[in-house]
Predict the structure.
Amino acid sequence: MKSLLLVANTSWYLYNFRFPLMRDLRKNGYQVAVVAPHDKYTILLEQEGFKVHNWKVSRSSINPFTEAIALLDLINIYRKERPDLLHHFTIKACLYGTIAAKFSRVYRVINAVTGLGHVFLGTRFHNRILRRILKPIYTAVFMARRSTVVFQNADDQEKLIQLGITESRKARLIYGSGVDIEKFKPDLDSSGKFHEPIKILFPSRLIKQKGLQEVLEASQSLWAESYNFELLLAGDIDIDNRSSISQEELLILKEEPRIICLGHVHNMRKLYSSIDIVVLPSWREGLSRSLIEAAAMERPIITTDVPGCRDVVDHGCSGLLVPLKNSHALKLAINLLIKNPSLARRFGKEAREKVVAEFQVSLVNKRTLEQYENLLNKSLRRMGR
């Protein structure tokens, strides 16, 4: 039996985004285990029969001593388990995991780039300096022998190839983690009419990089013109993210009667079925899971013309794309859909068709499994078997 470790910086990520993959892998004869810090989702993975190795790592730490401990901990886990294959998710897992694999003599590695982050995208002076310092490390990791780099969108893939950090022969494009189109599908009894008042959903953590400020500015402008709608915020603040709003700012939002702060929502399918329009003007995504789920539910979408968002929405066909950090354009797009519910319904139907064709979880898992088999077969050929 082929053994595989899935590695990430939270158990939450693996449970919420890779659980269907884990089940499919087990059905295909893989012995699957998880390496991630223990959190409240660890027990859910263990209840499904997956062993979870507790990785002592912090998402946001940059303390050299703490990071050295995280790397050594990963090396110890890999040496003990000796898996046939490693699949790393999130950038810290990719970096530390590939280094740990080399020290542990585990040579078959897949690194999943779920987003580039401020190191590669930031334009400030310290971002450029940090990028120059880290580039040799990233290059060593993403050029490692017998490894594959999986990207969620073509822009991220092209960016790292242009920077010389990886090369096209190692890069593969697989659209995110996929969505269950049988779970996320529109209700049969849906009338297609907008609610009164109209319900607009912002499905994201409450951080500035998701376009929260633009949503608030567009909403306030429309309310000033007597538009009747509620803005639902489905997400928490994120203290580990530098662009998160504060607890005090959240309290101010809650004082606005037309803004409904839902916090973290466990049943997103039920929420999508109860709203009219989805708005997510994110500054950049790996590939937005929220948008794919909303599209599968035939919700009309307004998002930004940036990587990871425009991959989900075809402008004027399955939704609307607006320029980055442009609250006025966002206001105009919301206005257009509010005044044209039939257009919004058409966008929703087209959006689901795109999800079925490109983003359903069975397709994503099939492509991922193919990459595993390719790596394993290459290794067998090198050994002359």
